Amino acid sequence: MSWPFRLMGTGLKYLLLGYTTKSTSGASFAPQKQYREFLNASNRGLLLDGVDLRLSERDSFQNVALMARVGTGKTTRYVVPNVLDKARTHCSMVINDPKGEVFALTSGYMQKRGFKVITIDPEDLTPSSRFNPLMEARELIELEQIAEILVRSGLPSSSGKDDFWLQGAIRFVSLFIKCLKHAGEENPAWFNLHNLYYLFQNFGEDGHKLDDFMSRYTIYPDHPDDESLWNEWKGVLTGNPEGIQSFVLNAITALKALSNPRVGKLTARSDFSLEDMRKEKTVIYVITPAQHAEYYSFLTSLFFRSVFNACMRRLPDRKTLPVYVLYDEFGHSTIPNFVSTANTIRGYKVSLSIILQSVSQLNARYGKDYADSIQGGFNTYLTYSAADPQTASFFEGIIGKVRERQKLRWDEPRDEYREYNLLNANEIRTIGDYEALIVSGNRQPIKVTATPFFENWGMRRKSAHPPATTTASSGDDRLEYVRL
Length: 484
Known about the structure:
- The structure is a single chain.
- By secondary structure, this protein is an alpha/beta fold.
- The protein folds into two domains: 22-128 and 280-463, Rossmann fold (3-Layer(aba) Sandwich); 135-261, no CATH class.
- The protein is built from 20 helices and twelve strands.
- The protein has helices spanning 3-21, 32-35, 57-60, 74-86, 101-112, 133-136, 140-154, 163-186, 193-201, 211-217, 228-236, 241-254, 261-266, 297-311, 338-344, 360-366, 368-375, 389-399, 425-429, 457-463; strands at residues 23-26, 64-67, 92-96, 116-120, 282-286, 323-327, 350-356, 380-383, 401-406, 416-421, 435-440, 446-449.
- The protein has a nine-stranded mixed sheet, sandwiched between helices. The protein has a three-stranded antiparallel sheet with strand order 1-9-10.
- The radius of gyration is 28 Å and the shape is globular.
- The model has no long low-confidence stretch (mean pLDDT 91).
């Protein structure tokens, strides 16, 4: 055979064998046929594309984390569509609504569909319901959680360097709350947060101004011989006077927002029970101004901790309504034992969606190790365009790498391998304005169009209903103070 034909044969063989021996594995985008198996219109869970791609209820109960910068459409493409979409189902919803935008766009339609509409709004008490987190607690451990939230929200620190002083303040707050619980059995108007602050205001130099109060209310009404709280009172007063004053001053600083009369009136009593939302279709909007998110972070944290506790007190049965929690601005909250909550609440028919501006918010609030543990409590992750560097790198990692195997020469016995990211961080940052990246469980990542509610005719029509009219139940908002 002449050399031109041999050359052509060699080239053809190289092309054929080179093509057949080149292969890829690892990460790849799921084709539509594949992702429609878990994300489709017939599912009844969370809506991810703003139109008809829903997770199953089971996947929704394994929690969702949405990470996207301000202005990328978290509210218009995720929160509002999910609220309006759930209007057709038997469930309850709890929404952190920093600007009141979700309430304005969805509450009227939800009320029309038979939902009981409740608002918590410390800036406008006229339409707001009243919520006393102390009255909502059912166990002593829940009162201790409240003490921890109040101190850690008021004095946020992720470094752990100040933990000794925080723990001292928490010990005082926890003790006073337990004593107020006993005082509340004499007069329910005393068992609230403004009286907690009142006790610290009257602590004085050494706490002796509170001795009469403590002698009366460290006694358990059902167990008058139990002196554990009185001994705790003596214990917190034992030690270096300057150290004790530091604990008290830290507590007063952490509780400073309780000096706000509106906060005092909002939390002085409760006019609804969170447990009722498991029996009656209810939608609750927690409205706090976005510019005051840090100021009201203690209130938001207390409320959602109470929601989680109410949902987890007993296992659900067939009549128990599922609860969908849409927790916007989660990065401003401090929730004790949140990892345990995120990992176990799924068994109580509760779907938790946390919404962050950046994954770095978790690190700043909880510390890196605990933030990593929080991320493990979520099965589905979403992001939109313009992700910050930390979020883009996070998604680059969980989307995964492509492994490519090929031969450089058709007659080479060895293979060549290389790995590369399916999407690099810069490609994640620059996805289309209406695109969303979704990573769910052990499935391949997908990229879909996430439609804002105002570009969906059906949802735009639903959002046009006037906002629901809500008013606080009749009751006296005058603040009563305990007898010292």
